[in-house]
């Protein structure tokens, strides 16, 4: 957690997702009973790193700070507020629906009326990369883990039913 905050990750951007303490036992043949040999603690934390150019160095720092038992399970990229992009997607989706409906009406030799039904379904799937980064840092030269976010795709589905004019 210190590695995250020292790396510039705000406390509001970290959250415990799962926490568990489990006994670890072994069977003692001599005494014919189970013996507790320790406990295994699992603490899963999600962190939102807002500065893209720091992702690799923060991953490296967290992996080193946590040692061999640290597992960095995956990375996903998202947009904090995709609503601005939905407006653009709506305009394009409606124009596309109108063009396709117009072509179909022309092929059917009918006139296209106004929309009688409109429905929208937004699809926003953050890009998720699953890779176990644990152990990638130990013994390696002092290189930063390369993380490339690429481009996000925000799409929107629109269903439009147009009236047909005589």
Question: How would you summarize this macromolecular structure in one to three sentences?
Answer:
With 166 residues, this protein is an alpha+beta fold. It has helices spanning 2-6, 55-66, 83-107; strands at residues 14-28, 33-47, 74-77, 111-124, 127-130, 154-165.
Tell me what you see in this structure.
This protein has 166 residues and is α+β, with helices and mostly antiparallel strands. The chain has one domain (49-165): 2-Layer Sandwich (Translation Initiation Factor IF3). Helices cover 25% and strands 39% of the residues. It is built from three helices and six strands; from the N terminus they run αββαβαβββ. The protein has helices at 2-6, 55-66, 83-107, and strands at 14-28, 33-47, 74-77, 111-124, 127-130, 154-165. The strands form three sheets. Strands 1-2 form a two-stranded antiparallel sheet. Strand 1 and strand 2 (33-47) form a beta hairpin. The longest helix is centred in the middle third of the chain and has 25 residues, at 83-107. It starts with a helix and ends with a strand. Mean pLDDT is 86; it is low at 129-140.
């Amino acid at each position: 957690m210190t590695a995250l905050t020292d790396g510039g990750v705000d406390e509001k951007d970290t959250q415990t997702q799962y926490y568990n303490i489990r006994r670890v036992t072994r069977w003692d043949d001599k005494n014919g009973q189970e013996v507790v040999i320790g406990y295994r603690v699992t603490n899963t934390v999600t962190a939102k790193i807002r500065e893209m150019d720091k992702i690799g160095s923060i991953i490296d720092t967290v992996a080193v700070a946590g040692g061999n038992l640290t597992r960095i399970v995956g990375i996903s990229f998202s947009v904090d507020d995709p609503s601005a992009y939905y407006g653009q997607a709506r305009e394009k989706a409606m124009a596309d629906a109108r063009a396709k409906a117009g072509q179909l009406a022309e092929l059917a030799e009918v006139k296209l009326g106004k929309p009688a039904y409109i429905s929208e379904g937004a699809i926003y799937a953050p890009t998720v990369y699953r890779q176990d980064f644990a152990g990638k840092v130990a013994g390696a030269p002092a290189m930063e883990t390369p993380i490339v976010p690429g481009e996000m795709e925000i799409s929107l589905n629109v269903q439009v039913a147009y009236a047909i004019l005589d």
